[in-house]
Design brief:
With 323 residues, the protein is α/β, with parallel strands linked by helices. It contains ten helices and 16 strands. Helix 4 links the parallel strand 2 and strand 3. It starts with a helix and ends with a helix.
Length: 323
């Protein structure tokens, strides 16, 4: 059963229920102080905005592709570029110059962005994304889920206001800054969750949320591929052995308890340990294994009763012959 569910999971059959459960798990996460800022600026303002940010002590500045592809460049600044897929391949391409990286928002059904890709496949080497360029090297995964409340939105300021405002040095030095175009050119169309009442953010707002999550460690790394298959198969074997030792009358209750425990543990691991387990698959493994063991026990008992009945009938016939 574990192998079958792992195969189905490989084809993303459980992506929707797992995504919804992830939304529920992070819905009440405390937001914490913002670690990122969105600056809205016209292309002509960007060089002065970058200079002003450096005067204020900001070290990490990123420019989104909507500005970069209108000619905005600056030394020492991350430049996002919309990647193009190489025809006939699974590879992506961005200009190989300076600090240009891929500006990529992985949208799911319903224009929802719960995760951030850290790199894309390139023909010669992996292409880092905006998030991958700022992510700690300890993240071995190519994607992370943003373990943020759907209401966690980074503050926004206009470039014009930033240039005119008299801010002291160091007032925003611990904040990552994402420079994007005015809101009319980058409207809030990306939803943060499938839950009712969740808000929408712009592309720049998405990157700012991702920077905030990476800086504060509010991310969950998915258990995928071989690790997921091993986990599901191991759980099904372990549970089958356990249920074989449990009295028949307690087998179903034990399986239900195992499913509830797997669900609670998986939901807790998202926010406490930063690990995203295959929640739906684990619950189905527990319930399915329990049901399978219970049905197998019932079949064996029926076969034993039938065999006993046949033996009794045979003996009665033998006694009649002897009489």
């Amino acid at each position: 059963l574990g192998a079958v569910l792992a195969l189905l999971a490989h084809f993303e059959m459980f992506r929707l229920p797992n995504a919804t459960l992830f939304d529920v798990a992070v819905s009440n996460v405390a937001p914490g102080p913002p670690r990122a800022l969105v600056v809205r600026a016209e292309p002509a303002e960007v060089p002065r905005v970058i200079e002003r940010l450096r005067e204020l002590g900001v070290n990490r500045i990123a420019v989104t592709s909507s500005l970069a592809q209108r000619g905005v460049r600056a030394p020492g600044v991350l430049i996002g570029w919309t990647p193009a897929q190489v025809p006939g391949t699974d590879f992506w391409w961005v200009p190989d110059e300076g600090l240009i990286v891929a500006d990529f928002v992985p949208l799911n059904q319903g224009q929802i962005a719960r995760r951030a890709l850290l790199r894309l496949s390139g023909e010669r080497r992996p292409i880092p994304t905006l998030e991958g360029a700022v992510a700690p090297e300890a993240y071995g995964s190519s994607e992370v889920y943003l373990a943020l409340s759907p209401q966690t939105i980074m503050p926004t300021v206009r470039g014009e206001d930033l240039l005119q405002r008299d801010l002291p040095f160091g007032s925003i030095e611990d904040v990552d800054v994402v420079i994007g175009p005015p809101v009319l050119q980058d409207p809030p169309r990306i939803r943060t969750s499938a839950l009712p009442g969740s808000v929408a953010v712009s592309a720049a707002g998405f990157h700012a949320r991702a920077f905030h999550a990476l800086s504060s460690g509010a991310v969950a790394i998915p258990v995928d591929g071989f690790a997921r298959a091993s986990l599901l198969i191991g759980l099904s074997v372990l549970l089958a052995v356990l249920l074989a030792w449990v009295p028949r009358r307690h087998q179903v209750a034990t399986a239900v308890l195992a499913a509830a425990s797997a669900f609670a543990l998986s939901m807790t691991m998202i926010t406490l340990a930063g690990v995203l387990l295959p929640i739906a698959e684990l619950v189905l493994v527990a319930l399915g294994t329990g049901l399978a063991v219970h049905l197998l026990e019932r079949r064996e008992r029926r076969q034993a009763i039938a065999h006993l009945g046949e033996s009794l009938v045979g003996r009665l016939r033998q006694q009649r012959v002897l009489q």
